[in-house]
Amino acid sequence: xxxxxxxxxxxxxxxxxxxxxxxxxxxxxxxVGGEFMPKSVDEFVSLxxxxxxxxxxxxxxxxxxxxxxxxVVHGALDEALIFDTCQEMYFQFEKIxxxxxxxxxKMNLPEFLRSIETVVAGAQERRTRAVTKAKxxxxxxxxxxxxxxxxAIPATEx
Length: 158
Fold this sequence. Notes:
Largest sheet: none
Mean pLDDT: 87
Order of helices and strands: HHHHHHHH
Radius of gyration: 21 Å
Low-confidence stretches: 150-158
Shape: globular
Number of strands: 0
Helix content: over 70%
Oligomer: single chain
């Protein structure tokens, strides 16, 4: 499916990819994608408040992905395109999602990572709807004694 400004969006995706390859961001992504595994709100808060490399890595990675998500929220990038090309964002968000509300409260940052949260929630909602729709179609097809597929149209002979 083609979208408006597809070429500009593709160029922006490629630029975002180039930025991800930058040395400092790559090191931060290695940390957040690897050993960063908070087990509580307090641990998450502590890692950010303590400063130093872990704090910098966490803020750099999540700041980057929140910026990318803000491009989606404000219409610069298509949400499906981000889902197809930036799976890392979803993986990284899952690490902190259980602690995000508590983090915002303890740090007095109510808007922290709202764009990522919005984009990820939208993707999850679409997947849930798609699964529900597929199940409904299958149940209806079974009730009708079909496999849910449209009948094949026989080729005409010439």
